[in-house]
Amino acid sequence: MLRSGFHRAELSLLASEHTVAKKLGHHYRRAIDAGDDSSLPRAAFVSTAAIGDAEGGLIGALAYVGATVAIGVVVVAGGALADAKLIELTEELVLLLPTLA
């Protein structure tokens, strides 16, 4: 139908309210009436986008914690290695100073 020139907004598989009432009679309950009935259970709508955002945030937080722990290990290990290298360079410099003077 789209190829024939119909606009997408004009396409619908829903019947009109009159057609539904004619075919089903009053065997159905209108959503507007159900909204005012306090005895019906309520549930908050949570979109799939919100669920995806929450999952992404959780994965991001776990990745951040893992990276922070990993960099902490590197800093701790690198700090000790850096101190050893600095001592080694200082000893070499002390040995070289008399030859430069």
Short structural summary:
The chain has helices at 17-24, 31-35, 48-100.
What does this structure look like?
The longest helix has 53 residues, at 48-100. The chain is an all-alpha fold. The protein has one domain (8-28, 45-100). The chain contains 3 helices and no strands.
Task: Name a few traits of the molecule.
single chain; 101 residues; mainly alpha; elongated
Low-pLDDT parts are none
SS element count, helices: 3
- Give the CA-based shape: elongated
Q: Summarize model confidence as the mean pLDDT.
A: 78
The N- and C-terminal alpha carbons lie at a distance of: 94 Å
Q: What number of structural domains do the residues give?
A: 1
Roughly how many Å is the radius of gyration?
36 Å
| Major beta-sheet overview | none
Number of strands: 0
Strand-pairing-aware structural class? mainly alpha
The helix/strand order is HHH
Helix content: 55-70%
Percentage of β-strand residues: under 5%
